[in-house]
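Hey, sorry to bother you again with one of my protein questions. I've been puzzling over a protein and I'd love to understand its fold better. Take your time with it, there's no hurry, and the full record follows here:
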Amino acid sequence: MKKWMLILSLAFLASCTRQNLFCRVTLQVDSAQPIVALTVDNSLEGNYFRNLNTGETYSFPVFVNGKCELQVLKGVYVLAFDGVAAGADGTARRVRSAQYATMLDAVTLTADEAMVTLKLLELQ
């Protein structure tokens, strides 16, 4: 009897499909000037990439050539940041992205891969 229970349990587990719980998201900035690198100070409380379902907060990696990639748990996210963007001409300017900063503007990341375009506002 135990042998049959074990066989049935293994057959059941083998028949279950694996569901991917994570989304590989590419964040891309929309800027009038080309950006070589964009850094975000993740220690500031106003800079966040937060899963509304779990409350987990992710750190922003460095954006290289206006893009960065990270793997996050699928869900609904709010994100906002202030950062320093380095241009191709060597200039550095302070920028802000607050397009998805509130629950009403949250972005849904439920596919296996997603691309989110972030509009940048230049700060004085």
